[in-house]
Amino acid sequence: MTKLMQDRRVMKIARAVRRAAVAMVTDFDYGMACDRSLAGACGDVSIVLYSLLGKENCRIVGGRFSNAALHSWVVLNNGDILDLTATQFDSGLSGVYRTGNDPRYDEDPEVGPKEIREAWGDREWRKRLRKKAKEMLA
After folding, report:
1. How far apart (Å, rounded) are the C-alpha atoms in residues 93 and 89?
2. Pairwise CA distance, residues 92 & 23, whole Å
3. Which residues contact 25 (CB under 8 A, 6 or more apart)?
């Protein structure tokens, strides 16, 4: 697969996960206070994105965005940050925010996939999100 094809695949998956998550929270299917910005859903959304992209293509990380509470996002193998819930901090950002360098992100090396899964728990919503995103990709 060429780099361009891989990049298109990554963005297609990211857009599907974002669309599915927004649709589900709009239908009040999240189980906690959440709106179209996906505030509070970063761990669940990042875990689903990470699982669909595959761990050979990215890594899921946690840390802070502008000193906010715990936040989670995906880092692609080329170093780009891919954050589907950055809109909770800055409504001017794209729903699928991809950046090569944004100093507002402060990765905590102690927070990886295991810690993110533990922090957000084993949520049925995440399983439904993954299924809905996969259906959108079909």
Report:
1. 9
2. 20
3. 34, 35, 36, 38, 41
Residues 6+ positions from 13 with CB-CB distance below 8 Å: 49, 52, 53, 133, 137
Give the β-pairing of 81-83 and 97-99: antiparallel
Cα gap 23→41, rounded to integer Å: 13
Query: Parallel, antiparallel, or unpaired for β 58-65 and 81-83?
Result: unpaired
At 57, list the tokens.
Answer: 């293509």
Per-residue pLDDT tens digits of the chain, which is 138 residues long: 688 788 899 999 999 999 999 988 866 555 555 667 788 889 999 999 999 999 889 999 999 998 777 899 999 999 999 999 999 888 899 999 999 989 999 999 999 889 998 888 767 888 999 999 999 999
Query: Position 62: which residue type?
Result: G
Distance CA 102, CA 125 (A): 30
